[in-house]
Amino acid sequence: MGDFSFSKLERLAKRPEFEKVLAEGKRKRIGRLCTVFSLPNGLGRKRLGIIASKKVGNAVARNRVKRAIRETFRHIKHQIIPATDIVVISGKEMVVESYKVIDEKLSNALLAIK
After folding, report:
1. DSSP designation for 11
2. Domains of the chain and any CATH numbers
């Protein structure tokens, strides 16, 4: 069984890291659900950053969306190409979708990263 944790080393934390991925990374839009940006890094590990603005909803809605994104990443990170920075910008549709739908669509998008 693989490692299904989500450690601090696997997170994008600083603004310049997010800005670099958003400026230079490949963009993939998943309908109105979310937008995924990816950029290879030289660190030898995958890192995830999540953007859930107030446009998504109140704090409860934003935290639910972030939990769903982290959970999806945690379960499929061993299948994603190594050494990639990923930023997921959530959309308003993520709030009303079920975990199952979010997991399915986001998993397909993350696994398609090249």
Report:
1. B
2. 8-111 (3.30.230.10)
pLDDT at 2: 56
Assigned token pair, 78: 């061993």
* Beta pairing, strands 84-90 & 26-30: unpaired
Rounded to an integer, what distance in angstroms lies between the CA atom of residue 72 and that of residue 111? 11
Q: Are strands 84-90 and 47-51 parallel, antiparallel or unpaired?
A: parallel
Amino acid at 100: K
Let me know: does 110 contact 80? Beta carbons within 8 Å: yes
Q: Are 18 and 85 in contact (CB under 8 A)?
A: no
Count CB atoms within 10 A of the CB of residue 48: 21
Q: Which of 29-33, 62-66, 80-84 has the highest mean pLDDT?
A: 62-66
Cα(67)–Cα(12) distance, integer angstroms: 15
